[in-house]
Amino acid sequence: MTFEEFIIRPKNLADAIETAEAQLLALKEGSKCSSPKNDGMPESQSHRSWTEDYTIRIEEKKQQVAELKERQERAYAELGLLFSQMTDKRYIKILVMHYLERMTFDGIALKLKYSIQHVFRLHSEGLKAAKTIYQEQETLMRGR
Question: For the chain (length 144 residues), average pLDDT per consecutive 10?
Fold first, then answer.
């Protein structure tokens, strides 16, 4: 995986979780209003199979959300580990706030009382430092 893919992975997983959770909610909402009508007659085989199918689809979507959340936790941990190997605490702070806490650059500038240009500069320098560490680790891993 490239450094660019590695660093954006937690955000991509967060977006995938949001989508999957919305799909799950839509499935649950759909099960409340679009089930075949029960007209007082004994439950038919087709209604049971529709209900079972719906239950299975909901459980599969729940499982997908859980798996995505596990992957996101690992991605956050791996990114945090990479950042912890950096020596400049300013870079670490900016990168953690942006990539782990998902703050905007404007929000970071306000919180740290830095100019936006200074935040951009530290972010750029921090990414270069993080990429160097990442690439060194990748080279070591390939050499094993």
Answer: 94 94 89 51 60 88 96 94 95 95 96 97 97 92 76
For 68-100, letters b (16+ CB in 10 Å) and e give bbebbeebbeebeebbeebeeebbbbbbbbbbb
CA-nearest of 16, 103, 28 to 94 is: 103
Instruction: Decide: 129 and 3 in contact? Cβ < 8 Å.
Output: no
Q: Is 21 in contact with 65 (CB distance < 8 Å)? A: yes
d(CA 118, CA 93): 13
Distance (Å, whole) CA 92 – CA 104: 15
Predicted model pTM: 0.75
Of 31, 38, 12, 7, which is closest to residue 127 (Cα–Cα)? Answer: 7
Give yes or no for a contact between 95 and 126, defined as CB atoms under 8 angstroms apart.
yes
